[in-house]
Amino acid sequence: MDAFYASVEQRDDPSLRGRPVVVAWRGARSVVCAASYEARAWGVRSAMPAVRAEKLCPEAVFVPPDFTRYKAVSRQVREIFARHTDLIEPLSLDEAYLDVTAPKSGLPTATAIAEAIRAAIREELHLTASAGVAPNKFVAKIASDWRKPDGLFVVRPHQVEAFLAPLPVGRLPGVGKVAERKLHELGATTVAALRTLPLAVLEERFGRWGRRLHELAFGIDEHPVQPERPTLQISAEDTFASDLRLDGLEPHIRRLAEKTWAGYLRERERRPERIARTVVLKLKTADFRILTRSLTPPQPPATLEELIRLALALRARVDLPARTRYRLAGVGLSGFTDAYVAGAQDDLFATPHASPRA
What is the protein's quaternary organization (predicted)? Predict the structure, then answer.
């Protein structure tokens, strides 16, 4: 979807159309959730501090986010996808992979399906979407950004290597700033240059991920579209209005644990066989240092009270100086596994009972 949150706001409020819209709460601690293309022309981007966005674009209209509404629109978009395929892998509210190898709609090509989906989104929801069509997921992802907004770009199988060759290595999935710098040190600034590096060199520098880099450089990606991606973590986090000391975090940890537990209960309703075994506490200091503490107790937390107790116990394991102040906290549940597996593990490590006497 194109500038999804901002586009929904502009659609639902005609007075916002054509104006630079920033979806964010105002305030020194807020960050931008989304920016309309009019705001992006001023340099405003998602995840940017709202204060900086306001300086870059003084004329911007700030709109507080309404995630309930965005989720409802996302479901409508998903319903349009489902007319063509059941193989839908959502990445977020505004993005998804679709495998249309065997389409339900009977349209002859993936390109025709992409065009039909974009037309339906425009006509029924009065929003625009951009699509990338390619033989695999990662090339399709790159192609979907190629002609934004409201664009369609197709990379046929025989075009993949030529399409990727001139791209900077930072466009490859998983290549962040650190990996990009290391590749530059090896002389690989583009995908074409990356292809010239021997596989042994990449594996020596990056370990097993070196092989993955080698494959990506040649457009190889065998990862299938996964309609039901297993939940890996449920969490809630919040940035405080002002930095706090560790001993002032308890009410916030309790509140975040409540949000996490509510999300966990919804997940259990959807997939009751899946349970979370690990409790995670995330903290960010005033100077943006991130700390995480985790604990996997013998028995998974079964109540909100247990989750709060474990999260507060993790706080006690933070060993920074008492004067340290924190700007953000988060509480999460991870280590999801099937209940029968967890039960088997508990039995395996349980203390054996004495056998009854004959």
Answer: Monomer.
pTM of the model: 0.72
Number of structural domains in the chain: 4
In which region does residue 97 sit, left (phi positive, over 0), alpha (psi from -120 to 50) or beta (all else)?
Answer: beta
Q: Within this chain, do residues 315 and 248 fall inside the same structural domain, yes or no?
A: yes
Q: State the Cα–Cα distance between residues 333 and 309, nearest whole angstrom.
A: 13
C-alpha angle with apex 266: 263 to 267, nearest 5 degrees? 90
Question: Which pLDDT score is estimated for 339?
Answer: 62
Q: Does some domain include residue 357? A: no
Could you give the C-alpha distances from 235 to 168, 258, 263, 311, 330, in angstroms and in order? 34, 10, 8, 12, 7
Residue 72 belongs to a domain with what CATH number? 3.30.70.270
Torsion sign over Cα 45, 50, 53, 57:
positive
Annotated binding residues, as ranges? Answer: 94
355 occurs within a structural domain: no
| Residue 61, C-beta contacts closer than 8 angstroms, at least 6 positions apart | 16, 19, 20, 21, 22
Same domain assignment for residues 87 and 133:
yes
State yes or no: pLDDT of 321 exceeds 70: yes
Average pLDDT over residues 64-88: 95
Catalytic amino acids? 95
Q: For 141-191, how does the pLDDT look when each residue is reduced to its tens digit (9 = 90+)?
A: 999 999 999 999 999 999 999 999 999 999 998 888 888 999 999 999 999
Report the phi/psi class of residue 351: left, alpha or beta, with left for phi > 0 and alpha for psi in -120 to 50: beta
CA distance 291 to 296: 17
Look over the chain and give the mean of its residue pLDDT values, rounded to a whole number: 91
Between 269 and 82, where is the model more confident? 82
Same domain, 182 and 100: no
Domain presence at residue 226: no
Q: What is the mean pLDDT of residues 85-110?
A: 94
User: Residue 176 sits in which domain range?
Assistant: 171-217
Q: What's the CATH code of the domain at 206?
A: 1.10.150.20
Residue 357: its pLDDT value, please? 37
Write out the binding residues for Mg(2+).
94
Say if 227 falls within a structural domain.
Answer: no
